[in-house]
Amino acid sequence: MTKDTALAVLEKMESYERIIITRHLRPDGDAVGSAKGLQAILKATYPEKEVLVISEDYADQTAFLGPEDTQRPEEDYRDALVIVLDSAEKSRVSNKNIGAAKELIWLDHHAAVEPCGDISVVEPELSSTCELIVNWYRLLEDRLVLNKEAATYLYAGMVTDSGRFRFESTTAETLRDAALLLDRGVETEPLYANLYMEDFDILKYQAYAYGQMKRTENGVVYLFVDKAMKEQFHLTPEQAGNSVNLMDSIKGSLIWLAFIQYDKFIRVRLRSRFVPIRELAAEYNGGGHGMAAGATVYSEEEMQEMIRKADKILKEYKETHEGWL
Q: Where are the domains of the chain?
């Protein structure tokens, strides 16, 4: 982000008395952290403004970050600035009233599927939208207030979307941004406890899930979490989706997929190491990052087709590249 762009965003915010922030459906730490982090910055900087975070769903895994604001009638949007965070496209935004906004700012680190907003800042090279907010603050720190509350929200989003700073998107600048947040007093021990400690029943599910994983000839590992499995272990949608993380450290398996069954479709979470899989996700009604994406299939036959395509991609990668584990 350039200084001119950062100023344009700030000046647009300064011109409104009511600012409504929202994010994508089925939120993760980055979606909630960036929304609440930006809200905390703006409320600390402009206490006279009405700054709200309004979305229409929430997630158990981020509930410890605190509640968002309640929905407002559509007429309250007509004189408001709406800021959408961490959503690759309008269809994923968790607020049906954004179309009524007087103006819209779009801030994201996903590759843009469609141009959105009166001002749009999309930086796919960043580890998270929280990192984008920190970059914006750095450019304008003489005019903005970043307190411990805001820093905690932003750090939560950065640490989760970067895989605890392990993913390829983590750069030296990412770590400098994290250090800035830590300097504001972020308490990492309670934060990590809320993010990563598991209930005993979830550990029992994970033990069961390891026995259900399958591996293709060329090393694609996948898990099908059907409705019966979800019911047996009382899994929330977030817990079921997080099953993809159980497969991230298997030698030789550079692509791993979690298929989560619902009544009319199967949600897919795709992850990879070294191998780009965003184009595969796009073939199946999805998208995301180069090595972390989501998709949707509508039958077990389509699921098997996707697995075969992933296996072919991995086979070709291994045949043409050296140095992978």
A: 3-195, 201-320
- pLDDT for 115: 64
Cα–Cα distance, 148 to 182 (Å, whole number): 9
Residue range 251-300, pLDDT digits in tens: 999 999 999 999 999 999 999 999 999 999 999 999 888 888 999 999 99
- Side by side, the strands of the sheet bearing 255-261 are 214-215, 221-225, 255-261, 266-272, 292-297, 287-288
Residue that is written with structure tokens 């998270």 in the block = 128
Q: Which long-range contacts (CB under 8 A, 24 or more apart) does 228-237 make?
A: 230/260, 230/261, 233/201, 233/202, 233/204, 233/205, 233/208, 234/201, 235/205, 236/60, 237/26, 237/59
Which of 3.40.50.2300, 3.30.750.80, 3.30.200.100, 3.90.1640.10 would CATH assign to domain 3-195? 3.90.1640.10
Task: Tell me, yes or no, if the pTM score tops 0.85.
Answer: no
Strands (E), 232-301: 255-261, 266-272, 287-288, 292-297
